[in-house]
Amino acid sequence: MSIQNTGRPHRLRLMDTYRNLFYTPIYVAVAGGFFYAEGLDVMFGTVPAGRPPLDMLRQGEVDIIQTGISRSLMALDDGDEDAPLHIAEINRRDGFFLVSSAPTDNWQWSDLEGSTLIPIGFTPVPLTSLASALRKHAIDIDSITMLEGMSADNALAAFRRGDADYIHMPNPQAQALIEDSAGYLAASLGSEHGYLCYSSFAATPAFINEQPEVVQRFVRGFYKAQQWLAAADATTVAGRVKPFFAGVSDSVLHTSIARYKSLEIWPETPDIGVDGYNAMRQVLIDGGLVKARHPYERLVRPEFAQQAMSE
User: How far, in Å, CA of 93 to CA of 22, rounded?
Assistant: First the structure.
């Protein structure tokens, strides 16, 4: 199915799953007009709390969603032959941080043993990646008391009350704690792993097969946004995404974005690499979230990224 030439942009519904600067490439693409320049009128929002993102895709409430290969791999494990397919990469590294309640001048990973930690509670993937880093450093995971199951807001409030020694958060949430002197940066998970296909855009097989031109325009616009993001400095990027982060200070935005840039969290191209897919899949298998080694070709549609990059 092609886009009808009506002279009007084609409406497309896009959602992220949790508003944070890890997903800056999405906000740049939306706010910068990169999708609109490709003839797409993007209706953008965030998945409501408690709603499974893949259910919203299956029920036709959203066309393209920010997610991870983890959800599609788990869906295949559960026998879902129509698991969402992935069309463009958003993040190529883990973008979460460990923030300590105490100064971290001489911090070591072994300091986590015997501590209390609040992990991300609304999705299992960040904790799975953190557990991989703990195993890498030979940390006894069972020695850490995990306060699980909290919403992000409740987790942050609990940490500020002193209920835990550590919290596991992305930016700007982590950086806001640091700038408020409520926490100290202990570790960047992006430095612990190599290339991981951590986050990507996904759509149902039916949507991709019925509207390939829409998907191509979307990926092309996103690629142009990625190029802009790679070339822009942190101050310029902060100004572009600020409307998505009401109440977050310019200082927190700038420092958060600069740190993500230094960690090379954001890819400069939309293609999902086989090595990044395999590495992320292995983290998920090691953590017990995924059982089978579903191949790259089963879940990734690379042709849209390849076409955008060749133009």
Answer: 10
- The predicted-structure confidence for 10-35, as pLDDT tens digits, reads as follows 999 999 999 999 999 999 999 999 99
Q: Which CATH class is domain 97-191?
A: alpha beta
- pLDDT > 90 fraction of the chain, expressed in percent and rounded: 93
Nearest to 222 by CA among 268, 257, 263, 259: 268
Give the model's pLDDT for residue 1.
36
Least Cα distance to 101 among 55, 147, 141, 58 occurs for: 147
Q: What is the DSSP string of 173-220?
A: HHHHHHHTTS-EEEEEGGGTS-----EEEEE-HHHHHH-HHHHHHHHH
Q: Where in the chain is the domain with CATH 3.40.190.10?
A: 10-93+195-310, 97-191
Over residues 143-165, mean pLDDT: 96
- What does each C-alpha distance from 42 to 36, 62, 299 come to in angstroms? 7, 11, 24
- Distance in angstroms (rounded) separating the CA atoms of residues 66 and 53: 9
Q: What are the CA-CA distances from residue 148 to residues 50, 122, 127, 155 (Å)?
A: 16, 9, 10, 9
* Integer Cα distance of 166 and 143 in angstroms: 14
Per-residue pLDDT tens for 195-250?
Answer: 999 999 999 999 999 999 999 999 999 999 999 999 999 999 999 999 999 999 99
CATH architecture of 10-93+195-310: 3-Layer(aba) Sandwich (3.40)
pTM summary value: 0.95
In the beta sheet, which residues pair with residue 67? 200
CB burial of 201-227 (b: ≥16 within 10 Å; e: otherwise) equals bbbbeebbeebbebbbbbbbbbbbbbe
69-77 vs 274-286: helix crossing angle, rounded to 10: 60
Paired tokens of 305: 């990224």
Residue at 121: amino acid letter? G
297 burial (CB, 10 Å; 0-12 / 13-18 / 19+) is exposed
